[in-house]
Design goal:
Largest sheet: 2 strands, antiparallel
Strand content: 5-15%
Number of helices: 9
Oligomer: single chain
Length: 195
């Protein structure tokens, strides 16, 4: 049932949002150049690797120039990238990941292999869940970049505090997840973006 729900909503979303997606693509090309889409390897269900899709919000090869984390007013963020990130519009291409069955609308945000390799046995349980575009942890940590910019060691803070708490929240959510709960998470996500 969840797969049907995900496929239907994401397909409709891609169709209805196609004018906006094209407009964003044009804005990126005009203001920041190509490529339009940023792909990154993530770890999904049962440890399967896949390439997540996002609108590019950073300079080309940004990952090679600094940390995997984006902290505060990162100088790698492009002109359009700031606005796309602010309103989470950079995440819209992930509807395609949902259509393909690599992700769900609601589920734990998929991590890069670097951080997954640091999971302990308990944390690895999160890989038993299908990753999603949004989740309860994304709502709680919607200002993660700002938070990390205020600590002395963003990498250590993410690894030792933020990441474990995100996993805990997602495992807790999974115990009582339902389509109704997923709809509530989607609604809360939209509310956070608007405000």
């Amino acid at each position: 049932m969840k797969r049907v729900f995900d496929f239907t909503l994401s397909s409709i979303g891609l169709l209805l949002l196609s004018p906006l997606l094209m407009l964003i693509g044009v804005a990126i090309v005009v203001l920041d150049g190509v490529p339009i889409i940023f792909q990154q390897e993530r770890v999904g269900y049962c440890g399967a690797r896949f390439r997540i899709w996002k609108f590019r919000t950073m300079i080309v090869d940004a990952e090679q120039k600094r940390s995997l984390l984006t902290v505060g007013k990162d100088l790698r963020i492009t002109k359009t990238g700031y606005w796309l990130r602010k309103y989470k519009l950079d995440e819209l291409p992930q509807l395609w990941n949902v259509v393909k069955g690599e992700m769900s609308l609601v589920g734990p945000r998929p991590e890069v292999p670097y951080y997954v390799n640091q999971y302990n046995d308990e944390q690895k349980r999160v890989l038993e869940l299908i990753p999603g575009i949004t989740d309860v942890a994304s709502i709680k940590f919607r200002n993660e970049s700002k938070y990390l910019s205020a600590v002395n060691d963003p990498e250590a803070s993410y690894r030792d505090t933020v990441m474990p708490e995100k996993i805990r929240l997602n495992l807790q959510y999974a115990e009582q997840a339902s389509l109704f709960q997923d709809l509530m998470v989607l609604f809360r996500t939209l509310t956070c973006i608007i405000h």
